[in-house]
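Ticket reopened. Same input as before:
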Amino acid sequence: MGHYVVRRILQAVPLLFLISVMSFMLIRMSGDPMSMYAQSSSLTQADRERIIKEHGWDKPRIVQYGYWLRDVARGDLGSSLYTYQPVTQMILERLPNTMILMGTVFVLSLAVSVPLAIVSALHQYSKLDYLITGASFLAFALPTFWLGLVFIMIFAVKFKEWGLPYMPAGGMYDLVEGPSLGGLVKHLAMPAIVLSIVSMAAYIRYLRASMIEVLHDDYIRTARAKGLPEGAVTWRHAFRNALIPLVTLITMNIPLIFSGALITEQVFAWPGMGRLFVDHANRGDYPVLMGLVMTVSVLVVIFNLVADIAYAAIDPRIRFNA
Amino acid sequence: MNEKITTVGARGVGRRELLKILAAMGVAAPLAGTGVAQRISLTAAQDSAPAAERGNPGGAVVVGVYQEPNSLNFLLTGGPISFASMQLSPLFEPMIRYNADFEMEPRLLTEIPSAENGGISEDGLTYTLHFQPGVTWHDGAPFTANDFKFTWEWIMDPKNQAQATAGWSEIESVEIPDDNTAVVTLKGLYLPWVAETLGWNPLLPQHIQSTMTTEEFGRNPVGNGPFKFVEWVPGDHITYERNENYYREDKALLDRLIWKVVPDRNTVIAQARTGDIQIGVDYTEAQIPEMSNVPGVTLEITPSSNYERYHFTMVTHDDASVPHPIFGDKQVRLALTHALDRQTIVDQVLFGKAEIAKNELDNSPYENTDIEPFAFDPELAKKLLDEAGWIPGADGIREKDGMRLSFTHGTTSGNQTRETIQALAQANWRDVGAEMVVTNQPASKFFGGFNDGGGWLDRTIDMVGFTNGMASSDPNLRPFWHTESIPTVDKPGGFNHSGLSNPDLDALLDAQITELDVAKRTDLLKQAQVIIHDEVPMIPMYDRVVINSIADTVKGVRSSPFGSISGLVWNVEDWSVS
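Engineering reply: fixed in the latest deploy. New output:
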């Protein structure tokens, strides 16, 4: 297995290189950092030319990529073209906030979706099953920005108008009162629920399908035939086997905890990684965007590997051929 | 319309007069004297108007902003007319500020340099600046004229990455005869110097800034204004508190001033309605109806000196001497201008809160008021197109020599107001047999450079829409309309978006930058406007306004039209909450 891991890590190097070239070119094509200065009347033409020269933007894009790669090879992700801060620092500032939000979403959506999926699978084609699958279809189809705005409109704006206890419309805590755990939970509730509703839907559909498939397998019939109680059949045989694909899905979703939610963080003014990406994409701030893309790429590669290893650990049928 | 909406212009100063004071920003009022210095004199505020009643001290105001400042060091924020200068001016006392009536008020300076008070030498090259005594930085160190000299040196040193050097780069030398005086000698005669360099610009503390990088200081700013920096949580908020050692008698009333970053403009509305924020900054016109009837919140609408314009692309991308196949013909440009119903756009999309823009230098003292906007007249438009040889084809779209009258139109994508107006324009032009195809780009691409796909000036889109105006203090039109300002592959600088090249116009634009006599210069600029108007290189659409929401509990807010959005905070020390 050691050989396998080493080989996979070595394979990741050219993959990450390709990702970086393609991302760099796409990001540079989609926005020009000089657009930040477009309508700033205090910049003279000489100032503009100086800024372009300073950053090497007068050189071909492939040369600009070379500069970026050289710095990364030295362990330097560069500095933001907008805030002038080191990219690493900016990412580290936002990472805890995103982990609080996405970690909550992760736990919440699994805690709700696993039991629902099992109930749904065990009572396939019942009214309850239709309700659960119908609701998850609907939830899956909802755009998060819309759901977020509806939540804000109802639970923050309208509840206040109706004189009910109302939720804060965004941010991480009350600025006048100052930070507190209670305040954080209150501010966390709406974005976490909105994101959970959407991700729950995916988990429910996945686990339900997997559970149903397993329940129709021969060994389940055998287990039943040899007289095992239904509880033991469901949990020891069916659920454990149905979990295998879910574990893969969960492991591969772990990078999401770090990458954050692009739109929901925007709507709820949550100062996380997704916000960082959107804010800087709007300015063509490619060092920050590259920093984020590469961080997430590395995480995806790592957790893909972890998923494969976990797969082998829980499924004895799988062996590594080193 | 709605009594909850107030317009700044209605509160005392007429809109026209208000914008007229743009003159004061850079160039002299025409004076009787003959010396150069007298011509560079500026209009200063009259001895202060009856002091407005101040509220009670205490409390906090949360201001919701959709854009987080990139830095709190003005070297990195792109000059006084930038979003970030809203966060800067409560921390850093400006040398000169502009009040709600658009008048200059000396702040760190004891007076605005002029020929009369001896602040400007007879030859117009030497300026003597007198600074307020007794000013201290927030860490207790004294502020002196040395900080002015240091700021200039710091800005001009390329390793400090200062973005904007306008004004500062004109300085030849600075001498400091005593702690409160700086004597500045310019490299040459430069009319807008006072406005560009002293107007709403802060200074840096030498004793601190010299120990930090520009970026570090921007995160840990030490200023000398009415508020002190407390903390900055990136992506979330920035907090200031009252400066108890402010050098003026009128210390800030608020205990705290908090900037809350709310990136989604719909969420800004929700937060203004729930009271999470007391002030919401810079709504779009499309949000007016939703914000007009919120209990306890008043909308403040302030005119700005910018206007939205549609530029025709008159020459090709590759070769600026080759006319554009459709818009190279003036008759077509004129026809499409007549075909556009701008009044309906203003009334319906902008809720009557804007006016039709007229011409370059609109609403400034240099405006040629004899110029009338082209009237809405679709019949005339059709006649002009017929005459130009564009004949309606089978699908109603005109054709000429096998070419359809179909053109692309681009602006920033995702802007609801702009997209609605595009739809109306599309219908107007369709009515006269012209087809407009929308090709919008994200702002980060649209406003890029000529060789980086920046659609607003690279002439790959046939017509482009964006806002610009006399944002600078000086009415110099050369960077926008001179032949030399047409961007090309080899010479990508310059902002002659349309590619208009007119030798008579070039001559006028060359003459006006060296003309010292303001009356003569104004006359040259007025002649230039006539040519620009007659050539129809663009359609001036409508004047832009700045829309803020202010909770009724907050008192003392009265935005200045200077700096557009950042004009909100000019008198922040007088804000209070009840």
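The mean pLDDT of chain A is 89. Chain A is about 75% helix and 0% strand. Please confirm and we'll close it.
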